[in-house]
Specification:
Blueprint lengths: L1 H8 L5 E6 L4 H17 L4 E6 L4 H6 L7 E6 L2 E7 L4 H10 L2
Parallel strand pairs: 1-2
Antiparallel strand pairs: 1-3, 3-4
Organism: Plebeiibacterium sediminum
Family: Belongs to the thioredoxin family.
Pfam families: Thioredoxin
């Protein structure tokens, strides 16, 4: 997963990463928001989910302390990061700033 993850976030296209855990209630609230967002964005940005329990090395590398944490990567760099549930309108506006 790690090599593939590095390849994905090194894209010039913005990549929204949802750092989540199966046991996390707010993560379950975030999931349908991201699904709607993906449909609205079409192919303009990529959205991936990283389970912090299954990928602790990735979570540690990006200092993920709570879930859900959303981060946007572009060309391998973190351009935005926020913990907690974020609504679709805000996410859309943030992603559009990085297109």
């Amino acid at each position: 997963m790690k090599g593939n993850f590095n390849h994905i976030i090194n894209s010039a296209q913005p990549v929204l990463v949802d750092f989540f855990a199966e046991w996390c209630g707010p993560c379950k609230d975030q999931a349908p928001i991201l699904k709607d967002l993906a449909q609205e964005l079409g192919g303009k940005a990529k959205i991936i989910k990283i389970d912090v329990d299954k990928n602790p090395e990735i979570a540690n590398r990006f200092q993920i302390r709570g879930v859900p944490t959303l981060a946007i990567f572009k060309n391998g760099q973190t351009v935005w990061k926020q913990s907690g549930v974020v609504d679709k309108v805000n996410l859309l506006s943030i992603i559009n700033q990085h297109l």
